[in-house]
Amino acid sequence: MPPATLNELFFTAANDASRHVVMRRKVEGAWQDIQRVDFLARVRHTNAALRKLGFAAGDRIAILSENRPEWAIADYACLTARLIAVSIYPSLPAQQIAYILKDSGARGIFVSNRDQLDKVLSVRSELPGLQHVISFDHGPLPEGVLSLDDLESRGAATVGHLANWEAEALAAHPDDLATLIYTSGTTGDPKGVMLTHGNIASNINSALTLLTIGPSDECLSFLPLCHIFERMVGHFLMFSAGSIINYATNGDAVPVELREVRPTLLASVPRLYEKIYARVLQGMTAHSGLTRAVFEWARATGETRLEYRLAKRRVPIGLALGYTLANLLVFRKLRGIMGGRIRFMVSGGAPLGQDICRFFLAAGLPVLEGYGLTETSPVISVNTFAMLKPGTVGRPIPGVEVTIAGDGEILTRGPHVMKGYYNKPEATAEAIDREGWFHTGDIGLIDNDGCLRITDRKKDLIVTAGGKNIAPQPIEGMLKTNKFITNAVMLGDKRKFPVMILVPNFYTLGTWLTGKHLPSGSPEGLITVPEVREKLEREARKSLRDLAQFETPKKFLILPRDFSIEAGELTPTMKVKRRVVEDHNRELIEALYAEPA
């Protein structure tokens, strides 16, 4: 029988004496190994100290931190003490953190550094139930704040508890809550998703039957651990499989640290793949005609070979030889950007453009796109090497049921579906019907191969005044592959026609201006230059030339800056809050519609 709880998975992996290094972190420019025995001791000591502080099974304790080994130590200490970890995005402001701490009833919180600590201290007077604050960092701390080092020292002195901590941890039941994860939400207040030991363990067990992951693998952890995607894949799954987890210093360091760590596996949202793709295309424009011609030939050769491989047909000898040369001249260099050892990459959290997926596949960097939500632990379906179909999110994983409702909404049922929303029975009843089907809010279809294809978010569908239904996400995805465009948001619900908000790639635009001997300037100034506006609109229309007339944006609004989490326009997982973007630019949008079409 596969392990039924996260604690069973943890002890199976942690007690494997053949494992030595379990994770690495970068300290003063050098990667440092963390040994299994040391990690296990720190989890055990933290577990004991939490018990000594009076935490009991079922209590909630929050983790507010960037990715680092202490995040894992705190999480496993909570799990093995049968506490419920409440994960909080470190990018959130103090008042949103206060909302989550109040709603969850957290009795304690782990914080990573002084910045996060100051957020908590600024709202602590509003949180009478918050009894303990524990800082991962060293140094002088305000009264009433413990350091993790002090906490571990207290736990190490509790000899009696250490003897039976594993037995107590293994008493956890699959239906016990393991974590509360608050959905970032594109509308309304966040809701606490109740995920059980059994929910997440079922997802891990199914993933390990589909993907070959083991002790010879390494990953680079950079997506937020407070999100279920990285928590399941880059945290629980990698540890259970015996793989080494390398914690990235921060998001900006990822390109450099990919080459330092040279991971074999990578999990990311599409944004990273989009950026690498755009960087490669930008690089080609800076080279001579011959170099560009070689690149385009290699790309075409890779695409042709990919068609044979996807159809499981024998690759002709001439094509195989051509691909060998394309690999030598182009694709090997691209793989070097990613460290040179990648076996496969996983994409999730948002739709990945099919062109981008096929490009990486052709280059020998397989991207396995999957689909899921926080409420589903998270994986519902994923592409695998046995069934690889770009443009889809693969087949449902073992144990997971998927059906399509009459209105096109994707419904799912199985051991992966959450227990419900914390303290929100009405929202739970709305999301999970009486037959146990979870309503995802996504629109899609199942093709003849049993693969799931996502077409859009149900709430994002645009219905024009003429009654035409438009799915904006695929259209926005077409624009994001254009080297002149960084971001795009389509609007037009209940309007006569759709419009598109564009955020230019100002680096590429600057290169184009230089080539045209046109003056450059600030982003605010550039978007008013007629030649720039005409260029961007031409590029947008070129990318969208295959759309039906009713789907094609009739007007474009060009912005001088990208959307941000700080402005409230993006969720912490980088999803666009469409309504917020519309509200922030309402006057400009109304002006577009006031002009003749």
Q: What sort of overall outline do the alpha carbons produce when their principal axes are compared?
A: globular
Q: Which CATH first-tier class of the largest domain would you pick?
A: Alpha Beta
CATH architecture of the largest domain: 3-Layer(aba) Sandwich
CATH topology of the largest domain: Rossmann fold
Largest sheet: 8 strands, mixed
Q: Cα-atom Rg, whole angstroms?
A: 25 Å
Strand elements, count: 26
How much beta, percentage-wise?
Answer: 15-25%
Q: Percentage of helical residues?
A: 40-55%
For the termini, the CA-CA separation is 64 Å
> Mean pLDDT, rounded to whole units?
93
Structural class: alpha/beta
Total helix count? Answer: 22
Largest beta sheet: strand ordering: 7-6-5-3-4-8-9-19
CATH H-level homologous superfamily name of the largest domain: ANL, N-terminal domain
